[in-house]
Amino acid sequence: MKKTINKQIRDAISNEYPGLADNEDLWRLLAYMAWGIKEAITLRPLVDQETLARIERKLPALYGNNYCGLTLLERMREVLGEEFTWTDYAFTESKARTIIFKFPPHIQALIDTEVYSMSDDRVYIDTGLKYSRRSKDRDKLLMEQEARITFNFAAPEAKPILEYMNELPTNLVTKLVYEKEGVYSENWKNALAYVMDIDDELVRESQLITLQNIRDELKAYYKPSWQGNTSRIFPANLSIPMLMKDVRKILTKGWWEMDLNNSQLSIVAVLWDIPEVQDFLAAKGKIWNELFKHFGMDAEDLKVNNRKWYEGAKREVFKESLYGLIYGMSISNLVKRMNASLQRYGIKGDAKHFLSHPIIKALHEARNKKMKEMLASGSVKTIFGKEIKVPEGKAKEKLRAIRSMLAQEAQAVEMYLLLPVIELASKTDDFLITVWQHDGFSVSFKREARRERNIRKIQQLVQERADQLGIITYLEVEQL
Questions:
Q1: What is the pLDDT of residues 168-179, one digit of tens each?
Q2: What are phi and psi of 36, to 5 degrees?
Q3: Do 443 and 216 form a contact (C-beta atoms < 8 A)?
Q4: Are the CB atoms for 98 and 45 separated by under 8 Å?
């Protein structure tokens, strides 16, 4: 979450809410309310248990299933007044709490101003202390401590990735952000200019806040799922992995990106035995092009003439809908979310049209069949040998668990395909894996003379595992 702020803005907030005083955790909560993740429809701050535990610096209690975030919220109510409240956490519906509170107009104006501030005269939000290189080192120690805590709760297969990524040197990112001490690099300036030109205000502001935090913390840290419901690892701070693809590519110019082609689609085509999808992939079909075409648009033309719009529509309309279908989202929720996205981007058609596409229809039918099989068998075993059981309970709870099991099984295969790359990177000085993105990663080559040989080796390792499982995918490579 956002760490620093313009001193004058912090002073104004402090004067408005003197009860914040020296309560660092309340300051962090207020910062999250102002600049944190918002619920898509209501735009209220989302506050799950992990977010609250990080704000209070109580991760060990969270991972030990001994944490309650209500106390923090109740303390904040004492400072902000009775108008500060929150919704209930709905476990069976996978809904986190949201905070209900509106800042006074003059404070909201300051919050909005801070989003666009790139001033070097800044202080830490929680302590009010001036930001400096020495204080940044303190933050680094804190992030490393949190990384060690969460590492112990990671799935065995995720630990080699976590260990590697969290031990990367900070200067990898320093070189991207700064040309020299106090002078921003061209990569940084170009990324900032691109973000400032994003039309969608919410997306623009979230990317600005992420860039601010990259400037302050530089290094990305990773964490496992605290609920233990996936092999995947996730960014633990606002960092490069949380940038939009186009922004990330601009900031990391000079690195290389490698991604599994049609990753999740190709994996479930095998796991769920969907011949229509396998035939489509074998014929070199491109799913995003196909879905844009289904809605009367030419993806290749959009890439050339309206790149930003294309990337946004691909991500928010088609990618979220496809992955939602794969990961077990209820059709009612999928329809609701996709229709909203289609309307936001001015695309004619609705979610029912999306579901009518032959590939999507086959995927939907295979998913339903797979879910029935899981319910009948009572469990599924991932490629790493982890058995996940359907819990006892009501039908709604079982259905929720099965949807999670669908995702866990596919995501484990995804990790299995890419693990050899981490093993190789750990044994060589030729290159570094610099960003981890679930179905791909970024690479910085230290020895240019061996670059092509190492690219072929990386691709070969991944391809061997894909061929072993009969998964029709390959590792795409792009120089940034």
A1: 999 999 999 999
A2: -90, -165
A3: no
A4: yes
Instruction: Quickly list H helices, 17-116.
Output: 24-35, 49-56, 59-63, 70-80, 105-115
DSSP class per residue in 320-346 = HHHHHHHTT--HHHHHHHHHHHHHHTT
Coil vs helix vs strand at 8: helix
Q: Which helix (H) or strand (E) holds 471?
A: none
List all residues 6 or more positions away from 161 whose beta carbon is below 8 Å from its beta carbon. 222, 233, 415, 419, 422, 436
The model scores a pTM over 0.85: yes
- Number of residues written out for the chain: 480
- Looking at this protein, which amino acid is placed at residue 93? E
- pLDDT tens by residue, 79-106: 999 999 999 875 444 567 899 999 999 9
Query: Residue 283 in 3-state DSSP?
Result: coil
d(CA 388, CA 378): 9
Give the distance from CA 402 to its chain's centroid. Answer: 22
Token pair for residue 433?
A: 């894996």
Specify whether the CB–CB gap between 168 and 162 falls below 8 A: no
Helix (H) or strand (E) holding 82: none
Region class of 262: left (phi > 0), else alpha (psi between -120 and 50), else beta: left
Report CA Rg, the chain: 23
- Asked if 104 contacts 16 with a C-beta cutoff of 8 angstroms, the reply is yes
Interatomic CA distance for residues 28 and 52, integer angstroms: 10
Q: Quick check: 347 and 334 in contact, CB under 8 A?
A: no
**What's the rounded mean pLDDT across residues 279-291?**
95
Mean pLDDT over the full length of the chain: 92
Q: Which residues are registered as beta bridge partners of 258?
A: 441, 477
Q: Which tokens is 394 given?
A: 């009501």
Q: Which amino acid is at 196?
A: M
Q: What is the pLDDT of residues 196-212, one digit of tens each?
A: 999 888 889 999 999 99
Q: What is the pLDDT of residue 43?
A: 86
Distance (Å) of CA 479 to CA 16, 253, 256, 337: 49, 8, 4, 34
CB 327 within 8 A of CB 268: no
Q: How far is the C-alpha of 50 from the C-alpha of 229, rounded, in Å?
A: 14
Is residue 117 predicted with pLDDT exceeding 90? no
Helices and strands per DSSP (H, E), number in the chain: 23, 15
At 158, the amino acid letter reads: A
